[in-house]
Amino acid sequence: MKKTRILSVILAAAMLCALLSGCMGGKTVMKIGGNAISEEIYSAALSYADSFFQQSYGFSMKDALDNELSEGTTGADMLKEQADGLVKEFESVVLYAKDKGIELTKEEKNQIKEAKDAQIESAGGRKAFLDSMSESGMNEAFFDYIMERQQIYSKLYTELFTGEGEFAPSADEVVKSLEGYVRVKHLLIQTKEGDADYAEKKASAEKFLARAKAGEDFDALIKELADSGDGDPGMSSYVNGYVIDANGYTPEGSQMVTEFTTASHALAENAVSELVPSDYGFHIIKRYPFGAEFIKENLDEYSGNAGMDSFAEELTKFMENVEIEYTKAYEELDIHKILGVEKTNGAAAGDASEEHSTDDGHDHSAESEGTDASADATTESGIEVGTAVPVQ
To answer: What is the pTM of this model?
Structure first.
């Protein structure tokens, strides 16, 4: 009965590329905080950025590469800006982790490899896996690149922003982050109008409503429905109930349907609703207390939202001091060719501004300070702080 909120581009889980040595070869199009970004990785980032526009706005930027979408800015410019931000965010997590002395262990790297192997098997083999990458605007190198950063992101969050971590939110901060939320449980009798047993299901819902109104134990009623094969399966995972804001969002980013949200917020504490119909069936909702005392007693369960906010704030501050150095290879990138689009209006082969560096464009990371292609420079992981990639 939840709808997943898409914050941006959705990332899948995956693995580590053999220290990224193969992924990072070839021309370097930019250096972020000294870390080299290859043309292969950046080209995939452009395709990935286009998928962001498709999911967020419902159109492909491929159709507007040469169009001036705002004064002096073409679709190609916007796509590059998105891709630049994407890789900057990923590399900022690499740099931030290194700054904090956090890196992946051998065991963690093996876990990522095992996760990728499982995905390949689930896809039906390596060819099917690679085909699915292509369909989503990715290639394997970029898949490995972002998923390693996803792993180190998780480690950063766990070690620094939860429990006794350096930036873990206090109990009072957690309470403040949940202002305006309510906590509810519900009985769900699943049915849809037009179903052959709709009238029968409605009659059953009315009986459960009467029992709930009479004061029967609500958790026992939830279990009774579950044992019969009905009810909301989510109630077995959320034993303390759903916590939602006025728009129906949970701290984790899922969203309840409008009917459920409206009825939940209209209830007084410990009150039971009338029948609440939705596309899922009939809901009977009970609102539970959700004050500072309860939240502090269950701090581990509810601290994640405040922890993520703290992480975003700290990483954003760190990113402000991370510089991008562009190379000649960046200037020579042909976005039309990368995305398989015909040029229009006499678009030039190179899409980038001439303001950037005139580096020769080749990857000298193994021989220049700050661009070491070894594991130290590439064993960290990342996720969204701004708009390029979603936080989970």
So the answer is: 0.66
